[in-house]
What does this fold into?
Amino acid sequence: MSDSRDAPVVAVEGLSKHFGNVVAVDDLSFTVARGEVCGLLGPNGAGKTTSLRVLMGLERPSRGSVRLFGEPVRAGSPQLARVGAMVEQAAFVPHLSGLLNLKLWWEADGSRWGRADLDGALAVAGLGDAVHRTVRTYSQGMKQRLGFARLLLGRPELLVLDEPTNGLDPGEIREVRELIGRLTEHGSTVLLSSHHLSEVEQTCTNVVVMNYGRLISQGTVSELIGSSGSVYIEVDDRERARTVLEAIDGVRTVHLQGDGLTVDTTAGRRSDLNAALVRAGLQVETIMPTQRLEDAFLDLLDARNTPGAPIGATS
Amino acid sequence: MIALVRTEFVKAARRTRSLVIVALLIGLPALILFAIHRRAGRADRGGDRGEGLFRLAHQSGLLVPAAVLSVMSGFLLVVIAGTIAGDSIAGDAAWGNLRYVLIRPVSRVKLVLAKGLVAGFLIWAATVLVMVAALVGGVLFFGAHPVTVPNLSAFGGTGALSFGFTLSSSALVLRVLIATAYVAFGYSALLAMGTFFSTLTDTATGAIGATIGVYIISEILNSITELGQVRYAFPTHYLDAWEPMFTGNTYPHDMIVGVVVQLVYLVVFGAAALVWFQRKDIRS
Ligand SMILES: Nc1ncnc2c1ncn2[C@@H]1O[C@H](COP(=O)(O)OP(=O)(O)O)[C@@H](O)[C@H]1O
Ligand SMILES: [Mg+2]
It folds into this structure.
């Protein structure tokens, strides 16, 4: 497999998908490198599910291409065996038991049941004896957990999760988040879509922001948070720092707060602020974003709707 | 492909619905057998003796399967076959499970073929079950005698019976087997259309309804003799072409035409299902 080492695990290039007049995905490009936990972030209707469907060979792109492990994806492509995916909610054959559902799904392509990582998958799902009950009797949370068991059967190198906590109650959401946390610890590459910003902030290293089918921003989570908005700084001399900061382009306001200062910026990075303070001979103790991804995200969407406004981490 | 057929078979067969269908496919022949039995009793007292196969059936249990098939092939088996075929792909779609079936490295062509094979097998199994239930019950009730068939065209006319013919027990068994195969194969058009409709929609009941609907419309149009030769192309026109094997001592030429018509439907709609499903965007 010459492909696997150098090529990105996921490579989406110029992808467009139209449904009649509806443009669900519009010239979308991004990559996910091996080991990244990438969040595909966007509000409802942004085109996340459509992009993931194309990625899994379920829908044909109107334009552009999608590669997994360096190979183009088509319906039933062999490299799909290396991906564990959940597109929208988990679903099963309702009149069969959870366990038989897993077995039949696994064996459909001729794979031997003995080869599946059943113990690992069931340990993750944590359904206990319920796996012997028909899926009809499951709650949505249980189905979602069985869905995780199913996608883990093949020890996948890439996990594709489409809004995995959608439709769950708060307890179930926490369970699923913890589960994703455990999976990412094992170093799998993950592409996770969400309109839940905190979910991406908590679980992802990288983020791809999209809206109206278009790419808005791609980068690391900290880049996105730090790209604009509010920064909290602690220095040895607050008053002098204030003067220095207020002179920087793009800084709107500087407030004293607690032991430090909060700085509102329209653009620019934390590193720029830091450099200016250091050049002025100030000791910088702390410099961190106060803004959550949530605000950064909303800023980004706003910026896109206001032509000419600056955008932080657009790649 | 074998693995796919096997897994799809388990999914399709292991459900409560299958038990209901099996109960119907055994229960209804039993009921018909009971009706034949009563009618035979009344006939002995010189009462009404009913139509065609039905009035002959009490002569031999080997004729009961033919009588039962002639009653059940026109509606109940159509509904069952339509349900099985219409549900084949749309069933998975309705559960939201189709996308999970297809994110395995499984070719869509093979999936449609596997689902079609499983549906076809179940339709044949249903038809054979009806025949077996009728045969067992019939032989238990009436024995396995040869049958003497009077000249039916003269029957009930002046009362003067002209020369008929006799079917030996082995001839009856052979013809029952052929009839069963012909009836089962007669659902090939329905199988292919049902599978095709099943690729068009994510609503299983829609696909099932459309499939059975086409059959009912075909039956209605077929009964309008003014339509003439157009009717020969209808999927239901030759469904009963096997009956003269028992009432007329012939292997009707129409049976061959019937098989050809079914084959044409099978190929055309089977190909349509394959082509359509291969290009389809899977959302469910
Ligand atoms: N089959 C379809 N037919 C028409 N429009 C569709 C179809 N699927 C998705 N869309 C539209 O495409 C856009 C993106 O949908 P989707 O990918 O589901 O977004 P997300 O998953 O980000 O919420 C939406 O406006 C949706 O209405
Ligand atoms: Mg979605």
User: Anything to note?
Assistant: The radius of gyration of chain A is 22 Å. Residues 170-185 of chain A form the longest helix (16 residues). Confidence is low (pLDDT under 50) at residues 306-315 of chain A. The pocket of adenosine-5'-diphosphate (ligand 1) is lined by residues A 19, 22, 24, 42, 44-50; B 283 (CB under 6 Å).
